[in-house]
Amino acid sequence: MSQFLQSAFTGPASLPRHLRQLLATTARDVQPARWDYGTWLKFFDTWPEGGNSPDIARASIAYLVFARDASSAALAATLRSLAVQPENPAYAVLDPATGMAPHDAIDKLRADYIGILQAGEVLPHHATRTAACQLEQLGRPEIAITDDDHIALDGARENPQLKPTPNHALMLSGTLSRGLWLVKRSTLLDHGSAADWAEELRLSVWLARRRAGDSHFSGRIPYILSHRRPDAEVAPPDVLAAIVERHLDGHGPAILPIATSPLTFRIEDGGGGESVTAIIPSTLRKPESLRCIQEILTGTDHPNFDVRVVVMQPDPLDEVQAAATELLQRFPNVTVRWLKARAFNFSKANNDTASGLTSEHILLLNDDVAPIRRDWLRWMAAFLHDPRVGIVGARLLYPDDTIQHGGVIMGLSGLCDHAHRHLPARKAGYMGRAVLAQELSAVTAACMLVRRSLYERLGGLDENYPSAFNDVDFALRAGEAGHEILYVPQAELHHYESQTYGSHYAGEREAFFEEEVLRMRTRWADVCAADPFHNPNLALVSGSEWQLAFPPRTEILGR
């Protein structure tokens, strides 16, 4: 909980105010053992029955409920949950018996926002009031998604779905399309389409609004405002796949959906024509780095790909390096260059080599990574077909096939760190996010594909970060300039971490540590405090980033 806002709205009230304030001032990196969800709910999700109702402007909310069976227990439960809302909201039910189209029902619901529900999704008593207050806090976005959880057969709450800020790449998988959504009535009337399922309408209207232009039309309410019963109705994957396929026809990445749950993808036929130049800084002294570079050359099926290896050191190449150069230059698409410099600087090595390139994309690549799948680069390039995407990062595995890099979370470990570290590669991770393409704040330059035009416009990597943080800083600057940064797990490589240069702060580089950390904290304080792609109800301790935060970092009203 980052601050306490004065408001007429009464929020969660399970503990006295002074105890909450004490928890809020506790160091965020002091994380207790994994909290039982039931215990966490008692601390942070107990809400008053009433709450103040002063004369202030708030968005009005009505509800649209989809049902496949008008007599089902799932629908009855959803309607009971609407009946206990203190605001007594209007609602309409769409089921096969009514024969009413969504557009007609929405037209009759006179409210600022329409809450979209499927039979079996039930609301807590505070949902409407909380949503109305949060919509005001967010500046009344066109679409707001909320967190949700499940209700077990014994009635216990479980499996919280704590979501990131809505983003295109993750939206394509369908994983964000469940739970209560609040959509402006005018947006639904303009962009909604015929639908038989809540998920279908949610996904179609979000993607339609995305196609319309502005990227800042949706937001996230970080509270659990719906519960999913075991009998809740679920849209068939082929329904969602059809929506995504229509959307991707000329809009976004060069991929096609497969009707699985969540949706998966294949590369669209005919992709891979864009030119890519890989820049690999290396000492060319260790057999491991030579082997990795050779595996990049032999294990990549991209048809328009060349490699520039740069050796940055004060003296010309020695015999070992010359022999490695001769071996590599037997490949027709490889150039090895000596860059004279007193000390190694990863940023400068990439910047000097990038200047003068004419390829469409630049691939920043360590000399300690090697492909697992031959199509890794084609997957990365496919996502750059979306003009809003500026950077694509890969999924990197340790030699033991656990994850080394699954994207970067800002604020994790105090500043930033890799997500999913040491998760077995076969596991999907929290909400499937280890295996789903998604937008993040940053990715590692151990394997980073970037538009050359963007690289040049941003001035490349910041050479004041000679070893670490240059990639995170670059990605954050790209995001600041309006570009999306994606983690694409279909691009999968092994990372034999730091075999060439060792630790970022070993030896003479140790002196840079405190200075560079301070620069990062100062320049990127806001995103370190609140990474939009990491839910504030989740922890910021490496290895526990998908566990519940204690306390959450939400701005909780009325404490």
The helix-and-strand class reads alpha/beta
State the low-pLDDT regions, or none. 1-32
The rough form would be described as: elongated
- The helical percent reads 25-40%
Count the strands?
24
What attributes does this structure have?
Glycosyltransferase, Nucleotide-diphossugar_trans, Spore Coat Polysaccharide Biosynthesis Protein SpsA, Chain A, 10-stranded mixed β-sheet, 24 strands, 8-stranded mixed β-sheet
Structure description:
- With 559 residues, the chain is α/β, with parallel strands linked by helices.
- Among the domains are: 61-234, Spore Coat Polysaccharide Biosynthesis Protein SpsA, Chain A; 276-407 and 442-523, Spore Coat Polysaccharide Biosynthesis Protein SpsA, Chain A (Alpha-Beta Complex), CATH 3.90.550.10.
- Helices cover 28% and strands 23% of the residues.
- Strands 12, 13, 14, 15, 16, 17, 18, 21, 22 and 23 form a ten-stranded mixed sheet that branches.
- α8 runs parallel beside α9 (237-248).
- Mean pLDDT is 90; it is low at 1-32.
- InterPro entries: Nucleotide-diphossugar_trans.
- This is Glycosyltransferase.
- It holds the Pfam family Glyco_tranf_2_3.
- It comes from Plastoroseomonas hellenica.
Topology (SSEs and partners):
Layout: E1 4-5, H1 17-24, H2 37-44, E2 61-66, H3 73-83, E3 91-94, H4 102-108, E4 113-118, E5 121-122, H5 127-137, E6 143-151, E7 157-161, H6 168-171, E8 181-184, H7 185-191, H8 198-211, E9 218-228, H9 237-248, E10 255-258, E11 264-267, E12 276-281, H10 287-298, E13 305-313, H11 319-328, E14 334-340, H12 346-354, E15 361-365, E16 369-371, H13 376-383, E17 389-397, E18 403-405, E19 408-410, E20 416-418, E21 438-440, E22 447-451, H14 452-457, H15 470-480, E23 484-495, H16 513-523, H17 525-529, E24 556-557
Parallel strand pairs: 1-24, 2-3, 2-4, 6-9, 12-13, 12-15, 13-14, 17-23
Antiparallel strand pairs: 4-8, 5-9, 6-7, 6-8, 10-11, 15-22, 16-23, 17-18, 17-22, 19-20, 21-23
Helix pairs in contact: 8-9
